[in-house]
Design goal:
alpha/beta, Glucose Oxidase, domain 1, 9-stranded mixed beta sheet, 3-stranded mixed beta sheet, binds zinc ion
Length: about 220
């Protein structure tokens, strides 16, 4: 039987590899029933970019919206999942305009399955990034959110973030660090809501896909 929905979220634990120089996840128990406390309470610390998360435009533009200002409907609704086969340029996989031109896009949200970052517990820089020209092609097809199964839409070594900036210019939102290895290509409903972090530059999300055929008649 087909699952009712797919969970696209990375587990969050001390094992989850952060982006280099970013604050890793840690979790500390501050109250323990085992020690006689009334309940169990834990405190977590991490960069808001650890694990599956959405970037607010403010992350890459001083004037951009903060995460609590982005309209929630941008993160809920029809999404297409596509497997793409990035080509290697100087040994680094890249998603080009030609790669996305052939996709039959029917949704504002597009999730790109690259399989170039299979191990979330160990950071590696050799993941697929997106060329700004490819973002233009997606924008022209009406895409308003790009989700990727890698830690960034830009190269790990990029200091200028051209793909993030092109997304900003084209008013496309960014969802990063998805797990898509168990998800067949197709049409779904995406739900990936950020926490209401006042002034935040990003937020962790619990990203899920529901079968679109089962939800499209819902109000
Ligand atoms: Zn990010």
């Amino acid at each position: 039987m087909k699952p009712r929905f797919y969970d696209l979220s990375m587990p969050l634990s001390e094992k989850t590899a952060p982006f280099p120089l970013d604050t890793p996840f840690s979790r500390v128990e501050t109250m323990r029933m085992e020690d006689g406390d009334a309940c169990n309470v834990t405190v977590i610390t991490m960069s808001v970019h650890v694990g599956t998360h959405v970037d607010a435009p403010y992350h890459y533009d001083e004037q951009g919206l903060r995460i609590d200002e982005v309209a929630l409907e941008r993160y809920i609704g029809k999404a297409n999942v596509f497997t793409v086969y990035p080509r290697e340029v100087d040994g680094i996989p890249i998603i080009t305009a030609d790669d996305v031109r052939e996709l039959s896009i029917s949704a504002e949200r597009v999730l790109l399955h690259t399989e170039t970052y299979p191990e979330y517990a160990a950071f590696h820089a050799n993941f697929a990034s997106i060329e700004p020209d490819a973002i233009d092609v997606l924008a022209e097809r009406g895409v308003r959110l790009i989700g990727v199964d890698v830690p960034s839409v830009d190269k790990a070594t990029s200091k200028t973030l051209p793909a993030h900036k092109r997304c900003r210019e084209r008013e496309i939102l960014i969802l990063e660090n998805l797990r898509l290895e168990h998800v067949p290509d197709g049409d779904y409903e995406l739900i990936a809501l950020p926490l209401r972090i006042a002034g935040g530059d990003a937020s962790p999300v619990r990203a899920v896909l529901r079968m679109y055929a089962e939800t499209k008649d819902m109000t």
